[in-house]
Design a protein that fits this description.
The protein is mainly alpha-helical. The chain has a domain at 103-258: MetI-like fold, CATH 1.10.3720.10. Helix content is 77%, strand content 0%. The protein has helices spanning 3-34, 48-57, 64-76, 91-126, 131-145, 148-162, 175-204, 210-214, 219-231, 233-257, 262-271, 275-303, 305-309. This is ABC transporter, permease protein. It is a multi-pass membrane protein.
């Protein structure tokens, strides 16, 4: 009997995910077609016969509704179409090559943000009001205030140009990963540290901790044994917007460091009106965000079973 409500919730989440992706793809399709210009508009116009062949090849000679229905039918079969900008590749091939790159950078950035953010937040909570706490929160505030398009060039200037410790860009070696991951992780480390500190301070002042505190448990042991797991519930809920932050930030970071990831393809596709590439990247990122939201909900349900019952 308990399995039935879980199956219903799972079915509801899958239906919600499908509707979300459909709306996302449809809105992106309409906005791309509404933008001025086209994928083959250049300073030197192509001969009319060449333009006609290109329009027929990419269905641009059809009415807008037929273009949408054709794209939607192909997308349902998993075919995202050919790329306008990279004619030798399909969108599926470009995404298959770019997704592991962006996933590696984003995954490492989130892991770094969680490790340092939770650690620094817990350290600040145990020393609340002291100079260590104030210094860490000041640094966290600076980390939130400085945008990624400023952080990334500063990292290049310091570690690549001045110190010559790391390469300024490129991809293929382990040291190419360091600076992009740091640039993506810094704002998330700052936010995670502030969130962890605030949540731990609330948890450590809860009534249910009076008994173990009266038994003589130190604040450090009290934190790890009783307070840390419930205090991390807000951090688990923050993982979804953190992922969105990493995805949106990757467009800037991958451009700065010349990384062949999803963000760079999205920017290049938008600048060149590559309709199919932009739509494919949007759908891939949307599906990833939906999947992460489902995993985060499951994680929060494990940490607090009352959420599952609700």
């Amino acid at each position: 009997m308990r399995a039935a409500p879980r199956l219903l919730r799972l079915g509801g989440r899958l239906l919600e995910a499908a509707i979300t992706l459909w709306l996302l793809g449809t809105l992106c399709f309409v906005l791309l077609r509404a933008a001025p210009g086209g994928p083959f508009d250049t300073e030197k116009a192509a001969p009319p016969e060449v333009q006609a062949v290109l329009d027929a090849q990419y269905r641009l000679d059809q009415p807008l509704l037929l273009q949408y229905l054709g794209w939607f039918g192909d997308a349902l079969r998993g075919d995202l179409g050919p790329s306008f900008q990279y004619p030798d590749y399909t969108v599926n091939q470009l995404i298959a090559n770019a997704l592991p790159v962006s996933a590696l950078n984003g995954g490492l950035a989130l892991l770094l943000a969680l490790l340092f953010g939770v650690g620094l937040g817990a350290w600040a909570a145990l020393r609340a009001g002291g100079w260590t706490d104030r210094a860490l929160m000041l640094l966290a505030g600076l980390g939130l205030a400085i945008p990624k398009f400023v952080v990334a060039p500063l990292l290049v200037l310091l570690f690549a140009v001045t110190l010559h410790w790391l390469p300024a860009g490129g991809w293929g070696e382990w040291d190419n990963v360091v600076l992009p991951v740091i640039a993506l992780a810094l704002p998330n480390i700052a936010y995670c540290a502030r969130l962890t500190r605030a949540s731990l301070l609330d948890t450590l002042s809860a009534d249910y901790l009076r008994a173990p505190r009266a038994r003589g448990l130190s604040e450090t042991r009290l934190l790890f044994a009783h307070a840390l797991k419930p205090a991390l519930l807000p951090v688990a809920a923050w993982l979804s917007p953190a992922l969105i932050n990493v995805v949106t930030g990757s467009a800037v970071v991958e451009q700065v460091f010349g990384i062949p990831g999803m963000g760079r393809y999205f920017v290049q596709g938008a600048l060149n009106r590559d309709y199919t590439l932009v739509l494919g990247v949007v759908l891939a990122i949307g599906a990833l965000i939906v999947a992460i939201n489902v995993l985060v909900d499951a994680l929060r349900g494990w940490m607090d079973p009352r959420l599952e019952q609700g």
